[in-house]
Amino acid sequence: MTKNVLDLRDKEKIQSEFNLYAKAVLNDDIRLYINENPAEYCESDDMSFLPDEDVIESLIDYFKKYYTAIKLFHGCKPIDVGDYYTKGILVQDSERLYKLASVIFSDVNEEELRRAFKKTNDQHSEIGSVFFTSNDEVLVKYSGHYLIRGSEFIQALAIEISNSNVNLKKIGVPTIFEVNIPISIFPNEDIKKVICPLVADWGNQLLKNDLEETNADNETCFEIKQSINPSYIVNHYHPNKIEDPNNYQRIYTSEITSCELCEK
Ligand SMILES: [Zn+2]
User: Could you tell me if 24 and 147 lie in one domain?
Assistant: First the structure.
C-alpha cells in the first residue's frame, strides 16, 4: 500500500491532491447546483453553499482512503528526549505531571508543591490531550513559549509556586517532534478543518469570486485526545533561535542544538 502523508505546509501539493480525491464527489450535478444557487461568497466555516451535508461526508471518506497519515509537529521542552522515543508523546495526566513537577521544582517543600499543584491542576482543562500544529515554522515564531519554558501546565505551576528559584528557561531542551499520525486517529471534525477551506476555494473558483489571500504563515492546530505511539515519530530537532511571545517576541537563543538521539 502506498503511503500518502498529508503535509499541510505544502499548499501546492495539497491542492493537486484535493483535485484527485475530490473529483469523484464534486461532480457536474454539484457544479450545476452551485451555479444555479450561487452563494455570495463560499466561506470555509459555512458549507451551506453545497446542496447537502452528504457532500462533505463523502469527501471525508475519499480523504481517508487517499491519505494514510497527517504530518504534524509538537513543540516541547523535554528533560530527556529519549523518553519520547520509548513512551511516545503522552497525554498529560496528573500523576506523571506531579512527578515531573517534583523533579523540576526540587527546591520547593512538598507541602507547598502539593498545594500549588492542586490549584494549577483544578484550573487546567488541557489534561487528557496532546497538542499539535501543522506548521513547525509558525510554532517557533508564535508559540515559542512552550519551547522556551515547557508546557502550559508547568508554566502556570511556576507562577503559582511562591518560593522557588527555578528558572524554567534553563531546564530541558527546546524540541520539535515531527510525527505522522495515522488518519484513523482523527475525528471527522479534524478532517473538516483541512477539507472545508479547500472546498470553499473550489466553490469560489467555480463562481469566479476572488480567492482570499492565503496567509503564508498559516497553521492548523489539532488537539489529539490520546497518547501518540513512539512509532509515529519520524524526526525531531532542536530550534536554537526562538521568538518569545511572553517577552515582546525577543529572540531566545538555545545553546543546545543537538542531542545523542539527533544523530540516530
Ligand atoms: Zn536531538
Answer: no
